[in-house]
Design a protein that fits this description.
Chain lengths: 806, 172
């Protein structure tokens, strides 16, 4: 029997090309292409009064200059609101090139096409754009103050008020033995993939077709957008995601202005045109996420059990809302985490500011949600003098409560019903892994060394694998090669390997025979995209179903030619075999040839197949309901999302000389159901934790009051190097999802979600001062500790006189 | 036009092969390698010398090719990621131990930053006595100057140990 590769740490097949420099990323394509560069707004809010291109015209190598006035038809209209929602009452999007008003630094105003990028930038810097500056709105508090409006016709700056409630929260709060209220903030960070965005387009005048390569997380949707905006029939457009150098959410947004403008120019100029985003462009013209202000009121009893939770969030959506209110909805619905919340009310006001747009960055509203819920747990524990783990345990949904209906509506419009999980199991494993009960000894040891030590934990539940669908196609060729495709894209998650493992296991073929293609509309036209930890759940299951379809057909054909019952056959190592009868078999590749009644004997496989040919003159060569070829296409469309879960704990040590915060231990317990490839899942968790640590301690987008992003470079935006990322210890728990054939849940975003909450908790534990704003730098921590007005935790008061922080 | 547009012809040895290119004097080495010489394995992540994705070896030392002009390497030896593997004289390639180690240890995900890590670590490991115990400080030196957004670095550090052990045991 073939080793079942599902669940094995199979080495990645994509690595063979990536480690020798043979990956093919966007800017590796089209060396002869013309290059685009953009003139972008230097102002956060301004009216364009004049664009003078005259000085650029004598730049040798200049090909074309485009402004808004050159856009026609659908291109002259605002970009689409991808995901409308009834509560998004004031959606606003920009134009591909700014029309009259710019609303953030970095908004594209002019596109220049030239013979190469150097020349294009020469021309761009000579173009003179005159602006009349307008008042600027930065930050959620300024947005709701509404002294100025980002959009004239939205005077209160509120794009949406998203509200969900599971009952009447106020009487329950009033009747609760205890209540507490607090406000906290979380700052902006960004996906920041190592490869920025990029687009290459080529118009084939003879074929009257357009081929677009784009560094995207959603090639099928880019295709539809390009066709619609450029007035092309869908069949004339193909879009391919080549190797993509990381996404983390920012590349799910589509169409980016450049994804339309570059193809537009390619058609107009009848030439290959390319644009590769530079790092500064990525900072100021792609997308950020995370900034929220959270006002939380919670009711609870003497045991620390929550009675009611009332949350009001101000969510900064930047200057436009092309991605709707997905992030606010996720914050609202994922906030409840692994807990029983008897009555819950949440309102997220999504507000406009003169900053880069806010769209999903790995976690997509969940890190903020987790920060809200978990810091609430910490507050309750502190107020009641209880262990933080105990308070959490008392509020957990129990294993016998699944499926657990939170009475909320998720991002996909489906109910938030948790499919499976074992949350007490997570906490038990986490406490053991991090050494939760030994923390006070560690604290004393650290104090003896003059350091402040603290420990914190955070739990989360993550809705993964939302619909509506993904598809998979599996085809066995006469050569024995198995072609697999799915429309969803890859950005480094190892899909080629994971999907090949699934097919090899389902079909019974050697993995070496399997070739996987993702994100290429020539191979698979229907897809949703790679986001929300959905690739393995959605495409993984679709591909499994497609492989099962191929298997069924192969067995049917083989049973016919071997004159046995289907039930007597098995497929192993690419051979259809009569069980227990060695030698009575037929290779799958021969079955593939037999599946097509037209068999010109081009090759040996076809010649060999002739010995199996059967003639039944009573039937047509292709039976009714059958089709030539050994292939199958199938789709997986889930009833609703699956819910993965996990628990993280951090131990921090703080040096009171420098207030440097060192994470000395970081523990993760992770449950994403059945695992296709544990090596890949651990890699995802490790990478996510690094981003969580970055978000907690280092990364922020520093906008000044004029709306200038003052740290728009890798010099100043502090993305973690290896020196900033702690060693991570990981333990696993497996509660399979009952919702899909493979029993899997998503894993892509998990690692990042609880970082900010767990680390805030640990720092608070270490210094005994309430942490209400994250990320936190050593300077901010120093200011907090030396400020006599800083709120002390009750635990710290209880420790008075026993340690350095007394 | 101004002097920045003056072209120069440079000769250099890239991955052991003598190459000649005529480039504007302002052309970055990264762009010359990628676009003039067609070696796209060297990636550009920030163009201001911070991320290290574009690291190549000039006369054996790691440099950021986005911070050098192509004309500055006239007459020098350049090694890019494409030059780390060796010809096996049988039509194939023998990977550098650090390349093998990256695959073995899952030290890459999207692979965009990988060439910069590979060249930097290969240079670091080749300069040391592989029989001597590899300290974490040495590993941090080899890994600590490059950014990776995918892996969280743990598996990259593991790969450095793995590659050093392979080199100690005779690979290369």
């Amino acid at each position: 029997m073939t080793t079942k590769l599902f669940g094995e740490p199979v080495r990645r097949r994509e690595d063979a090309r990536l480690i020798v420099g043979k990956g093919r990323y966007l800017d590796d394509i089209g060396h002869q292409a013309l290059a685009a560069a953009f003139v972008r707004s230097p102002h956060a809010h301004a009216r364009i009064t004049d664009i003078d291109v005259e000085p650029a015209l004598d730049v040798e190598g200049l090909i074309a200059i485009y402004t808004y006035d050159d856009l026609t038809g659908p291109m002259a209209e605002p970009l689409p609101v991808l995901i409308p929602h009834p509560q998004l009452t004031e959606p606003r999007t920009n134009y591909p090139l700014a029309r009259d008003v710019v609303r953030h630094v970095g908004e594209a105003v002019v596109m220049v096409i030239a013979t190469d990028r150097y020349v294009a930038e020469d021309a761009a810097e000579r173009i003179l754009v005159s602006y009349e500056e307008l008042p600027v709105v930065v930050g959620v508090d300024a947005a709701v103050e509404a002294k100025a409006a980002v959009h004239d016709d939205v005077p209160d700056n509120v794009a949406a008020r998203h509200r969900q409630e599971t009952g009447d929260v106020e009487p329950v709060l009033a009747a609760s033995p205890h209540t507490l209220s607090f406000t906290q903030y979380i700052e902006r960070s960004a996906s920041m993939p190592m490869e920025g965005k990029g687009v290459h387009a080529k118009w084939d005048a003879d074929d009257r077709s357009l081929r677009v390569y784009t560094s995207t997380q959603a090639s099928t949707s880019v295709r539809a957008a390009v066709a619609a905006k450029l007035d092309l029939s869908l069949d004339r457009v193909e879009v391919i995601a080549p190797d993509v150098g990381g996404g983390f959410g920012v590349k799910i947004v589509h169409p980016w202005p450049e994804e339309l403008l570059i193809p537009m120019a390619a058609i107009a100029l009848q030439a290959e045109v390319k644009w590769a985003e530079d790092r500064r462009e990525h900072f100021i013209s792609s997308a950020h996420e995370r900034q929220q202000r959270q006002d939380i009121t919670v009711g609870y009893d003497d045991e620390g059990r929550i009675t009611a939770l009332d949350v009001h969030v101000l969510h900064d959506n930047g200057a436009y809302t092309p991605y709707g209110i997905i992030v606010p909805i996720i914050t609202a619905t994922q906030l409840v985490g692994p807990y029983v919340i008897p009555v819950y009310r949440v309102q997220v006001d999504s507000v406009y500011t003169n900053t880069v747009i806010v769209t999903p960055y790995r976690g997509a509203g969940r890190p903020q949600a987790c920060y809200a819920m978990e810091r609430t747990m910490d507050r309750i524990a502190d107020e009641l003098g209880l262990d933080r783990a105990v308070v959490r345990e008392r509020n957990l949904i129990q294993p016998d409560q699944f499926p657990y209906d939170h009475q909320l509506t998720f991002q996909d419009g489906r109910p938030v019903i948790y499919d499976s999980g074992d949350y007490p199991g997570l906490v038990d494993k986490l406490k053991a892994l991090v050494g939760w009960d030994e923390a006070s000894r560690l604290r004393d040891d650290a104090a003896a060394r003059g350091k402040h030590l603290g420990i914190g934990m955070a739990l989360y539940v993550e809705g993964t694998g939302p619909g509506p669908y993904e598809g998979g196609h599996v085809q066995v060729l006469g050569s024995g090669k198995v072609l697999v495709s799915t429309g969803l894209t890859s950005q480094g998650q190892g899909h080629e390997t994971a999907f090949a493992q699934i097919v090899a296991s389902e079909l019974g073929v050697p993995i070496e025979d399997v070739e996987v293609t993702t994100g290429d509309t020539r191979r698979f036209g229907y897809a949703v995209g790679t986001f929300a930890s959905r690739a393995a759940v959605m495409s993984g299951n679709a591909i499994a179903l497609a492989a099962r379809g191929v298997r069924e057909k192969a067995l049917r054909i083989a049973a016919d030619v071997l004159e046995v019952d289907v039930a007597d056959l098995e497929i192993d190592e690419g051979l259809v075999q009569v069980k227990g009868v060695p030698g009575s078999s037929i290779p799958l590749r021969t079955v593939a040839v037999l599946s097509n009644p037209l068999r010109y004997a081009f090759d040996e496989a076809a010649k060999q197949a002739t010995q199996f040919t059967t003639h039944d003159d009573s039937k047509p060569p292709v039976a009714e309901g059958d089709a030539p070829g050994l292939e199958h296409r199938d789709y997986y469309s889930p009833l609703r999302s699956t819910f993965a879960s996990g628990a993280h704990a951090a131990i921090v040590e703080i040096d009171p000389a420098t207030w440097e915060i060192e994470i000395v231990k970081y523990a993760v317990v992770h449950d994403c159901g059945n695992v296709v490839n544990p090596m890949i899942v651990e890699g995802q968790v490790q990478g996510g934790v690094a981003q969580g640590v970055g978000g907690a301690l280092y990364e922020r987008m520093v906008y000044d009051s004029d709306g200038q992003l003052t740290n728009a470079s890798y010099m100043d935006f502090l993305m973690p190097y290896s020196s900033e990322v702690p060693d991570v210890v990981i333990d696993h728990q497996t509660t399979p999802s009952p919702l899909n054939p493979l029993g899997i849940k998503g894993a892509g975003e998990a690692g990042v979600i609880p970082g900010t909450a767990a680390i805030a908790s640990a720092i608070e534990d270490a210094v005994g001062r309430r942490i209400t704003s994250m990320p936190i730098s050593p300077t901010e921590l120093y200011d907090l500790v030396r400020n006599p007005d800083s709120e002390k935790t009750a635990v710290a008061a209880g420790r008075a006189g026993t340690g350095v922080m007394a | 036009m101004t002097s920045v547009d003056t072209d120069r012809t440079i000769t250099l040895t890239v991955n052991g092969v003598p190459r000649e290119a005529t480039v504007p004097v302002r052309r970055l080495l990264s762009d010359a390698l990628r676009h003039d010489l067609g070696l796209t394995g060297t990636h550009v992540g920030c163009e201001h010398g911070v991320c290290g994705a574009c690291t190549v070896l000039v006369d054996g030392d790691p440099v950021r090719s986005c911070l050098l002009l192509a004309v500055q390497v006239d007459g020098h030896q350049v090694t890019t990621v494409e030059g780390l593997a060796r010809d096996d004289h049988q039509g194939g390639q023998v990977l550098h131990p650090v390349q093998e180690a990256f695959r073995e240890c899952h030290a890459l995900q999207c692979g965009f930053c990988t060439p910069g890590f590979l060249t930097t670590i290969a240079a670091g490991l080749e300069k040391r006595d592989n029989a001597a115990e590899l300290t974490e400080d040495e590993v941090d030196d080899m890994v600590g100057g490059n950014l990776c957004r995918c892996t969280g670095y743990a598996n990259i550090k593991k790969a450095v140990h793995h590659a050093n052990a392979a080199m100690r045991d005779g690979a290369r």
